[in-house]
From TrEMBL:
Location(s), subcellular: Cytoplasm
GO CC terms in record: cytoplasm
Transmembrane domains' residue ranges: none
Functional note: Cell wall formation. Adds enolpyruvyl to UDP-N-acetylglucosamine.
Residue positions, PTM 2-(S-cysteinyl)pyruvic acid O-phosphothioketal: 116
GO MF, any single term: UDP-N-acetylglucosamine 1-carboxyvinyltransferase activity
Residues at the active site: 116
Main location: cytoplasm
Membership in a protein family: Belongs to the EPSP synthase family. MurA subfamily.
Assigned EC number: 2.5.1.7
Top-level taxon of origin: Bacteria
Protein name as catalogued: UDP-N-acetylglucosamine 1-carboxyvinyltransferase
Residue numbers binding phosphoenolpyruvate: 22-23
């Protein structure tokens, strides 16, 4: 396996462009199962999760071709209904196959995805929604078996304990677009990635009203057609790069962004003294150079348009070098603090109080051998390594490759010193210590 060797202490400066959003591309790939015609998807990030989804679609019978570095062509003329455990277990997001399979075939058999390191993410709202749409559901031997022969439009409420379900909303929309009658979804997720999926479905002939709001009205149609669609820019990658610029007190311009998707982050950065210049017409945001100290903040992660849970770890890394006390509360995934023990190894001062992290800023972080546990934790540890004194070695960076395309190359182009090397090159004394 590969590891990162990061030489800290280098200020980032320059411009960098973000790619398409993973969290939009995955359900968009799944949506191609709703038609037998060809769909051409552009601005797709080159990630392991994308390749896993392509593999699953091929297993289901679709023709899936990568026509360029970020372009794919998918044609699902003949599709079967069963997605097995050996494929689904590799990626939780594959649960979003339930909706399109039920919509297209009126039948689905998908392995339960299981838990993950950031805590349980049950699909009860997905199953409740399908049941409301007239489906019969049986969970046995680790599989969800759905009989959608009675599929029809109805009223759905998708609010959950931690807010609307994003993947659940995507699933219900994809099932409903081919369901007879009218479906009304209340407390729908309104994340930009859900909006992007709905906009693609409209191109395919779906009738969806209220896109971007918590209330969606869907008039079922008999069939959908192929289309061409470009995935929206990744707001999480953009936020990660902006925070990296702030962490090293550099001046970094992030291109190919939609500032309107990032208001919560930009407001939070402004509150802690990070000056951001926004160029909406050029789709650019610049973090300005700051030689002074930042200010502590209080952050609570919430569904969009609140502060995104996928940027919580990165902001925690920034706050670890910010004088004073910062408070970060996780309302989406309360267990999503696997990065904290690794930051402590680097000299951070963080204490946990339930689902909240109390961060007392320190003067300096120090390079150390650390272990990535999940996608966003990996990004936070990279950011911390950039600002640390000395060398940081990060193991299990395959997590990072799930959601960031060539992150080290983009950061190196800004002045970072990151080497991707084989784990065998990790110094033996560090390997034993880790």
């Amino acid at each position: 396996m590969d590891v990162f060797q990061i030489e800290g202490g280098h200020t980032l400066n320059g411009s960098v462009s973000v790619g398409g959003a993973k969290n939009a591309a995955l359900p968009i790939f799944a949506a191609t199962l709703l038609t037998g015609e060809t769909c051409r998807i552009e601005a797709v990030p080159d990630l392991t999760d994308i390749r896993f989804m392509a593999k699953i679609l091929r297993y289901l019978g679709a023709r899936v071709d990568q026509t360029g570095p970020h372009s794919w062509e998918i044609e699902a003329k003949e599709v079967h209904h069963r997605a097995p455990y050996e494929l689904v277990r590799q990626m939780r997001a594959s649960v979003c196959l339930l909706g399109p399979l039920v919509g297209r075939l009126r039948r689905a058999e998908v392995s339960l995805p299981g838990g993950c390191v950031i805590g349980p993410r049950p699909i009860d709202l997905h199953l409740k929604g399908l049941s409301r749409l007239g489906c019969t559901i049986d969970v046995r031997n680790g599989y969800v078996e759905v009989d959608g022969s009675g599929l029809r439009g109805d009223y759905l409420y998708l609010g959950g304990r931690h807010g609307p379900t994003v993947t659940g909303t995507a699933n219900m929309v994809m099932a409903a677009v081919l369901a007879p009658g009218v479906t009304r979804i209340e407390s729908a997720a309104c994340e930009p990635e859900v909006v992007d999926l709905c906009q693609m479905l409209v191109k395919m002939g779906a009738k969806i009203h209220g896109i971007g709001s918590h209330y969606l009205k869907i008039e079922g149609v008999k069939e959908l057609k192929g289309c061409q669609h470009s995935v929206l820019p990744d707001r999480i990658e953009a936020g990660t790069l902006l925070i990296a610029g702030a962490m090293t007190h550099g001046e970094v311009t992030v291109e190919n962004v939609v500032p309107g998707h990032m208001r919560a982050l930009l407001d939070t950065l402004e509150s802690c003294g990070v000056e951001c210049e926004i160029f909406p017409d050029q789709r650019q945001i610049t973090v300005k150079k700051n030689s002074g100290e930042y200010k502590p903040v209080e952050i609570i992660t919430l569904p969009h348009p609140g502060f995104p849970t996928d940027l919580q770890a990165q902001m925690l890394a920034l706050m670890s070098l910010t004088p004073g006390l910062s408070f970060i509360t996780e309302r989406i995934y309360p267990n999503r603090f696997m990065h904290v023990p690794e930051l402590l190894r680097m000299g951070a001062h963080i204490s946990m109080e339930g689902a909240s992290a109390v961060v007392k800023g320190v003067d300096q972080l120090y390079g150390a051998p650390i272990m990535a546990s999940d996608l966003r934790a990996s990004a936070a540890l990279v950011i911390a390594g950039l600002a640390a004194q000395g060398t940081t070695w990060i193991q299990r960076i395959y997590h990072l490759d799930r959601g960031y395309e060539s992150l080290e190359s983009k950061l190196n182009a800004l002045g970072a010193k990151i080497n991707r090397v084989d784990e065998s090159l990790l110094p033996s004394e560090l390997l034993e210590d880790a």
